[in-house]
Automatic annotation (TrEMBL):
UniProt entry keywords in alphabetical sequence: NAD
Database matches in Gene3D superfamilies: NAD(P)-binding Rossmann-like Domain (3.40.50.720)
Tagged with keyword Transcription regulation: no
Name of the protein in its database record: NAD-dependent epimerase/dehydratase domain-containing protein
Top-level taxonomic group: Bacteria
Domain NAD-dependent epimerase/dehydratase: 105-222
Length: 295
């Protein structure tokens, strides 16, 4: 099949999906996808993306994709980055029928999170480990994964699950947060580590999977250097030549309920499957190389 007959459709043209979409477009693929009709905070996103050559449709839980069968009929690759809500995964609820009717589908990717593993007290997690999500949001994720994977057996749809660690990249990283003054503190919780991944490396993994499809496969997507967040902030401050924000003990730190849920889990995410099976060579194997490149 020539590149010109490849058509990537992204449910949710967000931070990670767009980096991947632009990369495939540069390879000559046709790319289309969805944004939320209410993206007021991002006025002109539709026009901006369309000026790049991406065909943009409105979609969210209350606004199904118009003429979905027609829109999806020649799609060869689907990426969903739409998070589930309390009511479940709206992409599947609204459009499973049209997705399973796509006759040319070679690959489907679902962007999940490493939150599905829950807490491991600093232990290592592998893709085949049983899941024990600790927050309602992570429980919804685990359920959505299950529903996407069910399409493999029920409809022979080549679904792949990507469990992403903390995502950073241009415009979304500790350097920007420090410069804008959003980071008021470093939280001191010794031994509590997080994994992260540069957005370009997410695209590297997705592209490698597209080239080596393996229906039903799950991949952890993170770099080689899990670390305490305070140390990452300290390193970013050094790169910027500024004093790091004050260290505050975890118990005294002021945090939103959302931020607190991230601290329920302490685990090391193993990435050997993307390296060994997909042959991915990470552009940014650790946060040091990633932040330096963003400076």
């Amino acid at each position: 099949m020539s590149h010109h007959s490849k058509h990537l459709f992204c449910f949710g043209l967000g931070f990670s999906a767009l980096v991947f979409a632009r990369r495939m477009m540069a390879l000559g693929w046709k790319v289309s996808g969805t944004i939320r009709p209410d993206s007021d905070k991002d006025q002109g996103k539709k026009e901006r993306l369309e000026s790049e050559g991406i065909v943009v449709h409105n979609f969210d839980r209350s606004v199904p994709l118009a003429e979905a069968s027609t829109v999806l009929c020649d799609v060869t690759h689907i990426l969903s980055s739409v998070p589930p809500g309390k009511e479940g995964d709206c992409v599947l609820q609204l459009h499973a029928t049209e997705i399973t009717a796509c006759e040319k589908l070679e690959w489907v990717g679902y962007l999940s999170t490493t939150g599905v593993y829950g807490n491991r007290d600093g232990g290592v997690v592998f893709e085949d480990d049983p899941l024990s999500p600790s927050s309602p949001r992570s429980k919804q994720r685990a359920q959505a994964e299950k529903e996407w994977l069910a399409l493999v057996d029920a409809h022979d749809i080549p679904v792949h699950i990507f469990r992403l660690a903390g995502i950073y990249g241009p415009g979304r990283n500790p350097l920007d947060s420090l410069k804008s003054g959003r980071v008021k503190q470093r939280i001191d919780k010794p031994g509590h580590i997080f994994s992260r991944i540069h957005v370009e490396d997410i695209a590297n993994v997705l592209e490698a999977s597209v080239n080596h499809p393996r229906a039903g496969r799950i991949y952890n997507v993170c770099d080689n250097a899990p670390e305490e967040p305070s140390k990452v902030t300290t390193y970013a401050s050094q790169l910027l030549g500024i004093d790091p924000p004050p260290l505050v003990s975890f118990d005294d730190a002021e945090m939103s309920p959302m931020a607190k849920t991230f601290w329920l889990d302490n685990k090391r995410v193993d990435n050997s499957r993307i390296i060994n099976e997909l042959g991915v060579k990470l552009d940014y194997p650790d946060y040091q190389s990633g932040l330096k490149s963003l400076l």
